Amino acid sequence: MKFLSTDSEKSDLKKTGLFGAGGDTIRVGRGIGFSLSDPNGAMAMELKAVMMKRRSVRRFTEEPVSREQTETLLHHAMSGPSACDARPWEFFIVTRPETLEALRDAGRYTKHKAPLMIVVAGNMKKALPMQLRDFWIQDCSAAMENLLLSAVDLGLGACWEGLYPMKRMVERVSKILNLEEHIIPLGMAAIGHPAEDPEPRDQYDPKRIHWVE
User: Fold this and answer.
1) Which of 7, 51, 62, 73 reaches 20 to 30 Å from 144, CA-CA?
2) Is 62 exposed, middle or buried (0-12, 13-18, 19+ CB in 10 A)?
3) 33-42, 82-91, 101-110, 148-157: the lowest-pLDDT one
4) Which residues contact 75 (CB under 8 A, 6 or more apart)?
5) Orientation of helix 97-104 relative to helix 167-176, angle to 10°
6) Where are the domains positioned within the chain?
C-alpha cells in the first residue's frame, strides 16, 4: 500500500482517472486508487470495473503465476471478513504438475488446466464452537471471492471450482493433499494468465430485490 503525496505522483494518477480532486490518494495492488476525501469518486468507479470484469476464466496460458502475485492474492484473500474474527481458513498452494493433474481428476468440475491452484479450506480447530461451526463456510467463501477479485486486479484469470459439500470430491482432494481430518476443503481456485477474455457483464436483476419497508 502506497500513499501518494507528491504533485507529480498525483498528476500521473489523475491522468488515469483514479484520483479524486479532493485529497490524498491510496494505491492498492495494481491499478487501484482512491481518494480519501472523495468516497463516492474514483474508488467506486475502479471497484465497479473490477467487479464487472470478474468472470470465470477456464482457459489459461502456460505462463506461471509469480510468487509475488501469489502472495498478493493471499493477502487479499485473508482481508475478508469472518464471524467473530475466527479466520478459520487455510490455503494450500499447488504448482507441482503431478499434483495439479491429480486435482483436475478429482471431479467433473475441476478439469481446468491452470498453472496455479489455490485450495481454500476450513480448519475446524479454528472454527466457532457447536452450532456456530458452520460459519466457516461463509468465512472461506468470502476469502475465495476476494481471491477471484484480486486475480482480476492482477491481470490474471480465475475460476472457482466447488468441492464442499460434495463428499466424494472433498475426500479425493483431502487424500491428494494429505489433509488432516479437521481440515475441510471448501473449493479450489484455478488461476493463471487468461487465454480467453470474457466480456464484463452486469447480472443485476430487479426481480430478485425485495424492499422491506
Assistant:
1) 62
2) exposed
3) 33-42
4) none
5) 170
6) 2-53, 67-192
DSSP code, position 60 = B
76: cell is 487479499
pLDDT for 15 beyond 70 = no
Looking at every residue in the chain, the average pLDDT score rounds to: 85
What's the one-letter identity of residue 60? F
C-alpha cell at 16: 488515469
- Which residue, among 180, 189, 183, 188, has the nearest Cα to 163 in the 3D structure? 188
Considering only CA atoms, which of 123, 131, 134, 120 is closest in space to residue 88?
123
**Three-point CA angle 51, 111, 82, nearest 5°:** 45
Of all residues in the chain, the percent with pLDDT exceeding 70 is 79
Alpha-carbon distance of 9 to 25, in angstroms, equals 10
